[in-house]
Amino acid sequence: MMKILFHPHVQEKFERVKRSRIFNNLLKIYSLDKKKVLDIGCSDGEYLIHFGKGSKGIEVVPEHIENCQKAGLEVINANVEDDLSLNETFDVIWCNNLIEHLVAPHLFLMRIRRFLKEDSMLILGCPVIPKIFLFRYLKRFEGYLAQEHLNFFTSLTLRLTLERAGYLIEEARLFYFRNSFLDKLLSIIAPHIYLICRKVKDFQYPSKRLEIFTPKFQKQ
Question: Which one of 3.90.850.10, 3.40.630.10, 3.40.50.300, 3.40.50.150 gives the CATH number of domain 8-217?
Answer without folding.
Answer: 3.40.50.150
